[in-house]
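Postdoc handover notes: sequence design on the structure in folder B. Input tokens:
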């Protein structure tokens, strides 16, 4: 069950067994907090078992199945639960979940799950499951609209485009990051409308996002701008890996885009296959023909060499400068 639907079920009825699964920790944390709230328990009243500490399975089952002593409820949080994937099996745990005491509640948290496993199906039957999937590029605007509506703000077209493009660049879109950044904007922007200059002042100072300007300049064949931004970024040597990551990701996306366009895949399907917001995908459709497949394949290998040589101390600014100039002169 996706996040919004899962949260609605908590307002209707609290069950005795929950599985919070997936990679988006923001959704998992919010769901866990609401379950505690509905159970009227403090975090200090919850027994937390972290399976990364190699707790024996029989001990976990015993804790889940124990009657409460000092509190009216026995609430157990099992973090990093390995039972929903891999080889661990337990008929006893399945039986425990199917016959929970009225006073007992258990919340499993697992990053990876196998929906075919009997234990997963047991939780599905006797409890509820959250599928905390990471936010995708094409979902950013839905998230933004919800935040604007709840805050009573509106956003200009230029600001919206800037926001979506910069967030889409991130290898992984963290909702915790987005929430924190948006709260910063709300604190600093007093007008009802959020303008482009407001975002430029208050948002996106991550190296991955700053490096977006290099990619922009390369696509526009602006050698001086691209090299200038590169030199600024590499004043901090730690940004070398960030620049390599962003460049290699851009080259990989261009190669994929050429393949999809060659096979007549365009529009919404093109954006989804590249995991891009439509803004970015539309831009890509125009940029792709300016690159040859041969050049992209050569640059991809050169970036891999640069990454290896940097790690052994044999690559620096000049290596990436040559790559950037070569791309701009295509």
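Designed sequence:
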């Amino acid at each position: 069950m996706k996040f919004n639907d899962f949260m609605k079920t908590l307002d209707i009825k609290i069950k005795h067994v929950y599985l919070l699964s997936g990679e988006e920790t923001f959704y998992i944390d919010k769901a866990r907090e609401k379950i505690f709230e509905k159970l009227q328990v403090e975090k200090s009243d919850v027994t937390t078992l972290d399976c990364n500490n190699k707790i024996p399975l029989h001990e976990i089952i015993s804790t889940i199945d124990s009657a409460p002593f000092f509190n009216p409820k026995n609430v157990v949080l099992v973090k990093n639960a390995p039972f929903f994937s891999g080889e661990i099996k337990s008929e006893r745990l399945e039986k425990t979940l199917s016959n929970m005491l009225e006073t007992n509640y258990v919340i499993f948290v697992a990053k990876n799950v196998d929906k075919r496993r009997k234990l997963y199906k047991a939780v599905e039957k006797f409890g509820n499951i959250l599928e905390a999937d990471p936010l995708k590029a094409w979902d950013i605007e839905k998230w933004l609209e919800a935040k604007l509506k709840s805050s009573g703000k509106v956003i200009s077209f230029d600001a919206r485009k800037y926001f979506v493009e910069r967030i889409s660049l991130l290898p992984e879109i963290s909702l915790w990051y987005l929430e924190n950044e948006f709260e910063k904007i709300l604190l600093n922007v007093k007008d009802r409308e959020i303008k482009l200059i407001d975002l430029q002042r208050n948002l996106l100072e991550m190296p991955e996002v700053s490096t977006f300007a290099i990619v922009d300049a390369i696509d526009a064949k602006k050698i001086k701008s691209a090299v200038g931004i590169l030199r600024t970024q590499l004043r901090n040597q730690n940004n070398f890996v960030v620049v390599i990551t962003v460049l290699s990701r851009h080259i990989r996306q261009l190669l994929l885009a050429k393949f999809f366009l060659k096979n007549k895949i365009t529009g919404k399907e093109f954006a989804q296959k590249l995991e891009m917001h439509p803004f970015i995908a539309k831009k890509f459709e125009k940029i792709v023909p300016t690159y040859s497949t041969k050049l992209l394949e050569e640059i991809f290998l050169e970036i891999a060499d640069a990454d290896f040589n940097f790690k052994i101390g044999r690559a620096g600014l000049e290596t990436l400068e040559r790559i950037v100039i070569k791309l701009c002169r295509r």
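Context for whoever picks this up: The radius of gyration is 25 Å. Don't rerun without checking with the PI first.
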